[in-house]
Write a structure and sequence with these properties.
With 172 residues, the chain is mostly helical. Helix content is 51%, strand content 9%. It folds into 2 domains: 4-97, no CATH class; 112-168, no CATH class.
Length: 172
């Protein structure tokens, strides 16, 4: 029986009338298509290079990688770069790929607005939307009496004068 080298790290071995492909993970060529093999190579530098390069198809695959890292720690493979470091980098990368709408999906309004000053929260809203829901007495409370009259037509001013005269004379 002789090993036939196919490419770095990949060999064919004839066994009982069949050909078995043998992959020696430490010998595979470091490139994107071999990233998954690098994760299982038991060499810390290759593991991290593979984890960084491999294109995870589903978010639920990440816990699999976490289990692999845990096993490496258990058998004593030095891992200066922790799984938490990897998750942080992976999350940043995924967030950068998302649209703003995707990033805030699922967050309650309070969390989306946290940290924004009131003027930024209201930017772009027309005045009528800014005050919607406030009772009239709250709207005018902060205004000086002369400012409260700004924007009233002559008709409205005459009507207001009549209302004030009736109120001060005790009539309703």
């Amino acid at each position: 029986m002789a090993l036939e080298a196919v490419k770095p790290g990949v060999y064919r071995l004839p066994v009982v009338g069949r050909t078995v492909t043998l992959i020696i993970l430490r010998e595979v060529e470091p490139c994107p298509r071999n990233a998954l093999w690098e994760i299982f190579s038991f060499e810390a530098a290759k593991v991290f290079a593979g984890a960084d390069t491999y294109c995870w198809r589903r978010d639920y695959h990440v816990p699999i990688l976490e289990q692999i890292y845990q096993r490496y720690r258990e058998v004593g493979i030095p891992m200066a770069y922790t799984f938490e470091d990897f998750k942080r980098e992976w999350t940043r990368q995924k967030l950068a790929e998302m649209t703003p709408e995707e990033r805030v999906r699922g967050l309650p309004p309070e969390e989306r607005l946290r940290g924004l000053p009131p003027e930024e929260r209201l930017r772009g809203l027309p005045p009528e939307e800014r005050v919607r829901g406030l009772p009239p007495e709250e709207l005018v409370r902060s205004l000086r009496p002369e400012d409260r009259l700004l924007g009233l037509s002559n008709e409205e001013l005459v009507r207001l004068k009549d209302l004030l005269e009736r109120r001060t004379s005790g009539q309703r």
